[in-house]
Amino acid sequence: MTKRSMRTAIGAGVAGLVLWGSVAQAETYDLVARYVLETVRAFRTAYVLHVVEHTKEVGIAPKEDWVKNAHAIPLPAQFVKTAGSDLDTFEIGIIGLTPIYKSNLPKTEAETEALKSLMADPSKKIVTFSEGKQFKAMAADFAVSQSCADCHNSHPESRWRNFKKGDVMGAIVVRLTRQAN
Questions:
Q1: Inter-residue contact 74 to 66 (CB < 8 Å)
Q2: Closest by CA position to 96, among listed 116, 121, 79
Q3: What is the rounded CA–CA span in Å between residue 19 and residue 27?
Q4: How many CB atoms within 10 Å of residue 126?
Q5: Which residues have CB under 8 Å from 105's CB, separation 6+?
Q6: How large is the angle between the packed helices 76-84 and 26-46, nearest 10 degrees?
Q7: Which of 82, 180, 139 lies closest to 74 in space, CA to CA?
Q8: In the chain, where do the E strands start and end?
Q9: pTM strictly above 0.85
Q10: Helix and strand numbers, DSSP H then E, in the chain
């Protein structure tokens, strides 16, 4: 799967749910954000369970430098971030309190507090809030397989090495820019 085809697949799925017209009500932003998060979470889970786990059986594994390696595929976080990088009308990302890369830290104090709240009570699954001109939503990002936890636990740059399958590792975040009336 090429980088472009990944972007197109996720972008098309998400864009199909997001109908930008005159979006003025907070309830509409909340609903759109939830649809986007559910779609991204479903694609990510399917990618981990049905692509990453399956291709390992034939010697193809996720690697950080997947672009340079014809026998590698993107890590699940790279899969989401690559798809999100191709979007113009909103942002999708992965954030955590102890990410391997600083680029995956929350962007604002409000994001940090929302992420802490979500991690303290994963049964919430999604939190939403407005901040400035943006409406933001976060979905708990669980280690859906032990290989997710093992990868983070063994990475040389990891600041947290105690993840196990089912743990909340951070969040998938969507940032929608609110349109003026």
A1: yes
A2: 116
A3: 14
A4: 18
A5: 95, 96, 97, 99
A6: 140
A7: 82
A8: 61-62, 72-73, 90-95, 126-131, 134-142, 168-177
A9: no
A10: 6, 6
Distance CA 79, CA 58 (A): 20
Q: Write down the residue that tokens 């954030």 correspond to.
A: 95
What string of DSSP letters covers 27-67?
A: HHHHHHHHHHHHHHHHHHHHIIIIIIHHHHTTT-EE-TTGG
Angle subtended at Cα 167 by Cα 162 and Cα 168, rounded to the nearest 5 degrees: 110
For residue range 109-142, what is the model confidence (pLDDT) as tens digits? 999 999 999 999 988 889 999 999 999 999 999 9
Give the start-to-end residue ranges of the domains of the chain.
Answer: 3-177
pLDDT digits (tens, 9 = 90+) for 147-170: 888 888 888 888 878 889 999 999
